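Readers outside the structure-tokenisation community will struggle with the description of the input data as it stands. For illustration, here is how one protein appears when written out as sequence plus structure tokens:
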Amino acid sequence: MTVVGTPYYMSPEACQSQPYTSKSDVWSLGVILYELCTLKHAFVADNLLGLVFKIVQEKHEPVSKNARYSQELSDLIDRLLEKDPVKRPSVREILKMELIRRKAKEFLEQNEVKRSKTIVFKKNMPVVVKA
């Protein structure tokens, strides 16, 4: 029932003083992912009231306009930034998505390669050994 943080990341339900759930965190995740891809805010206004209006009423500019990112990623961001929290995916649903599972697997495989090139000496101080 509290509001803390930067207004750019507020979900539509928080902007409307409605009860919110973890789906508000999913919204914020969508905003952060949008910013990482576009290097700009999903919603911009000159004042707080204008920002709240845009979050609640307007659609963000699609990430798919940028050819650097896949349609799959653009679709994920669109789902995370769904105005209706009932239609927004849960964290559990996000973790089951093929894109997320594939990227997590790639990350773990890359991390395993890095770990295999590391020797740990006393007091858990890693020293990287070049292959």
Observations:
- Residues 98-131 form one domain.
